User: Fold these one by one.
Assistant:
Number 1:
Amino acid sequence: MAINSGLNPWASEQLCIRHLVREDLKALEWNDQYTQFRRLYKDIFHSTRDGRAIMWVVELQGIGVIGQLFVQLSSTRHDLADGLNRAYIYAFRIQPPYRGFGVGSKLLHFSENDLLKRRFRWITLNVGKDNSAARRFYERNGYRISGEEEGEWSFIDNFGLRQVVHEPSWRMEKDILQVGIVNN
Ligand SMILES: CC(C)(COP(=O)(O)OP(=O)(O)OC[C@H]1O[C@@H](n2cnc3c(N)ncnc32)[C@H](O)[C@@H]1OP(=O)(O)O)[C@@H](O)C(=O)NCCC(=O)NCCS
């Protein structure tokens, strides 16, 4: 899908949102900043195959992948994603030089539209309590705080070691049927 925007310092047809393919996995490491998530992202990629997850990327022609957003469609945590009505958005980021040009908003709206087509109604996400800029971004996009999370989770890093993350977060959610979605 080509994106239209009068603000971007690139031609609209240079930017596209698409499903991640295996060859993109390396690009998600952002020159080693996210190498620790290599195994985790590979596992998520496998779960896209049986329809439990979706991995969206934004590609800028001539540059490559500049952003990502993952969606968990079903989970053992039904308050986050139940495979039917409720889906969970995470690992949403745009590379720093490309922030503030509307790319993140377009990627979010694109994934919301996709979820609406799949007949999902509620979108949930967790945002770090120390990430007030992202919280404001979500509020502007119709998300409301619905709870809080200890934010304790773990993953196996690229060396095979378990890493524990503690990130106290706000739970936010949006009723995409009620609130509506901005067209891209
Ligand atoms: C949040 C994020 C995905 C938004 O993408 P984006 O392309 O910058 O978004 P847009 O250009 O559509 O909107 C920009 C708005 O996002 C807000 N924002 C949040 N975090 C930001 C950041 N680190 N840098 C720039 N803008 C940021 C800005 O306040 C801006 O609001 P404004 O237009 O009122 O100034 C992106 O800024 C990002 O990757 N941030 C770091 C990772 C992160 O916090 N992800 C969310 C985790 S829950």
Note: The chain has a mean pLDDT of 93.
Number 2:
Amino acid sequence: MLKINGAAKLSILSALTLFFSIAITAVPSASAKTHYHDFVVQATQVKRLCKTHNAITVNGQYPGPTLEVNNGDTLVVKVVNRAQYNVTIHWHGVRQMRTGWADGPEFVTQCPIRPGGSYTYRFTIDGQEGTLWWHAHSSWLRATVYGALIIYPREGSSYPFPKPKHETPILLGEWWDANPIDVVREATRTGGAPNISDAFTINGQPGDLYNCSTKDTVIVPIESGEMNLLRVINAALNQELFFTVANHKLTVVGADASYLKQFTTSVIMLGPGQTTDVLITGDQPAVRYYMASRAYQSAQGVPFDNTTTTAILEYKLAPCPAKGRGSAVKPLMPSLPAFNDTPTATAFSRSLRSPRKVPVPTHIDESLFFTVGLGLFNCPPNFKASRCQGPNGTRFTASMNNVSFVLPSSYSILQAYKQGISGVYTTDFPAKPPVQFNYTGNVSRSLWQPIRGTKVYKIKYGSRVQLVLQGTNIQTAENHPIHIHGYDFYIIAEGFGNFNPNTDPSKFNLVDPPMRNTVAVPVNGWAVIRFVADNPGKHPEKCQSYFHQLFIPKLLTRMIFQPAGAWIMHCHLDVHITWGLATVFLVEDGVGELQSIQPPPADLPAC
Ligand SMILES: [Cu+2]
């Protein structure tokens, strides 16, 4: 019997892939469109909670414009920076196959767009359907610089559920009654925790439970018998959120632009960066109902914004006196889980399943174990006490595998990598913690202080990666929403306490785990994710064999390549990324042009 080893198999596949890709590129899909947009980043007067602020917006809109595309389309977005801050835009969840220069995180894939500068992001969305979003990826600008990115099914195909009559993006945001850039700068100066926010928002509005807000509360109309697809996005900076609608069931159909096995729930939980698509049906008496969102706060003894944002689900036939904003008849208020209701958050995340069997990699080339958590730096000798306002005269920090990530400033990591510039980063990010300890127990103080560095982890083209993300109990245990750029991954298991390599693999779901771009690592617990390098196509459930993918022409366009480049992985709580809870996967190019990143665009900003 002919036996082909793994490497040979890979190279044969690479060659075949190359051949067929040339065929595909030569005949682009007739229906795929290119969408052109101008994003002008500018200071805009925005009044919330009785006070007007000069908020940074895109095109004067808060939240910013909603982008709508079909799977397979190309986006060309020219970003012009008319604000006083550096800015970049990240297209959260977009795979960026070969277009890593368009990913957006500052000093990782590009230098920031300086005030007065501009940069055009060009990329194609291929194999992803559902809800993503875009946001600034520079300092805390994403507090107001964000918007929805809606990906409809490929032209000619349809949803794997009945077509809803209406679709409504629900962007959950976080508002400071202050300039958020000042808030983070102050925290960076003092070393203490940043001020908590003053409101959460739905589509930019806090809603009826806040001062000076009632007249602008968002109203979502619904008709009896109609179905509405709510595309819920957690765009908050620092808070995991529960979301619910009074008296209405939510049928979950997708998350992070991947479809899910449908299930019904009364409440969903989203970490910052995550999206969830839910169907609601107008099957209740024709009156008005609040949809509401408030914190899931897993860290104990830490101040947080405990306010509740609301919008109104309003039946078109609701009696007139009860209609409109500020009406005397209040909408029905749902009950929300307690702030620390970890069992509800866990029950929700464990309900997510891919629609059918998916090709989870079973042979692993890179087995990684990263701790994620906080830390404290001792006060440096040359610092005044006013700069060490963390617990007991320390400064807050955060780390992965004891490395607190520092962004470079002279070149982006991708630029340094592709142009061979040395001294920008090192490739010694450890595959496992330098010291093993009882991660979720009472951690010795000697292990609370990480080292600082721009350390990246290099991955070979075609690697099959398993990554255990292990939360730590250093300073405060907390649920960390870990986001990887450039990839979707399967979440094959999660649990509490320390991951046990002997017993926990028996809990791995290698059949129908959900595919996401952001995993909420349970508080004082762990999550295991897997992603494939050589076949990361988003429609593996449609066809799992290379043979079929190669010989069924319709599927050819779904042959997607390893997105070579520099991909940041970070906690999506901005306070934690500020403190260094991040690292970068440096993925080498594969064989030939089509397995390599494109050349940098001519207008790529310089540092
Ligand atoms: Cu975090």
Note: The chain has three domains: 31-158, 160-352, 366-535+564-592.
